[in-house]
Design brief:
It contains 16 helices and no strands. The chain is globular and about 60 Å long. By secondary structure, the protein is mainly α. The longest helix has 42 residues.
Amino acid sequence: MLTRLISRLPADQATRALILSTLAGSTSRGLFITVSVIFFTRSVGLSAAEVGLGLTIAAVVSLFAGVPAGHLADRIGPRGVMVTFGAARAALMLGYLVVDGFIGFVAVACAVQLLETGFSAANGALIAGSIPGEQRVRTRALLRSVTNVGWAVGAVIAGVGLKFDTRTAYSVIIVVCVAIALLASTLVLRVPPVAPQPKAASGPALVVLRDRPYLALAALNGVLCIHYGMLNVAVPLWVVERTDAPTWVVAGMTLLNAIVVALFQVRASRGTATVEGAAAAQRVSGFLLLGACVLYSLAAGLPGWAAALILFAAAGVHVLAELRQAAGSWGISFGLAPDHAQGQYQGLFGTGFSVAGVIAPALLATVVVGWGWPGWVLFGVVYAAAGAAVPVTVRWGARSRPRRAARTRAGLNAGPAGGGVAAPDSRTVRRSGSDHGSVCAASALI
């Protein structure tokens, strides 16, 4: 599978470096997530409730990091921010080995998650600055396919530690996670550096917070992203508590999802490089999610074999919706973001996904598992409505771009005291010769 993916990569240095970095990073995360909860409960001595609460607190705190970190990437260069944040995050993960209580666990988790969010925002800016516009969505699709492969590899490696089930084994695995995460950050240095973007002489620094169409699209995408919690939380609970299907069906649906995403995400991204195509993809995703929700609800009350068939059919429709939702989100987030502020725009769009991750588990467990089929239908209707609203909102955003671009160019051309600093050409990829200053500036902030 991995060989097939690599063989389809463009030959350019930036894409290959991003692929290798993503593979290493996702392997590290897959390895860590597989063993972390068991390590925290059996070795550190935390309860399952404390682990869940601590991770939720960290996720909420990190919501405020995406836009500022993306703005920093715009100002000093995204590659330096990625390397610095990634290395700092890896080093802080070693803190898990010395925590002995809930407060220490929350402190480390918050710091790690904040840096992870900043790393992701800078990653979006780096892709925008180093990959030509028409190739950005395809590159993100390739990265997502490789991410699934990395998660699977990490989970397999984690099986070694789970087999021994000792403090030493878990500690070794965390050290390995840190080493692989550091490798991921080092590989980013193989991406040609992107020059810092000039700051407008007037207006707010965080311009994305005043871009109402983009804010609305980030919110709509966040609503659609709640579906990720369906497969991870709602569906397993639904299978166990409300259907007669065998429990192995949960693993089978998860495996189906991972294989389909790894093999077909690139193909599913075709036609979404334009904002119009991306909006259409998200609209289709919303209606597919409605269909998946209806199918999931029909599994209740059926014999075990029939319930299993319906659940696999639902999972198949669900993953098709996921492919189109993800591809559409990349086309919109890149296509409507100005070149001089890609970092903060990608950071904001990622915040919508993060909010969905925070609210989805409790919301889905309460509404879907608690209410039964009406809960499934309600969520399906919400998905369909959100998807249908995306094309309208994209047209609103597209109409506002010329005016916004004109104001931005005027601010950039004015420069300090009308100094006549030339506005950058948004149609070209701007790269600097060195990112050393960017790394030092980001280090000082940390």
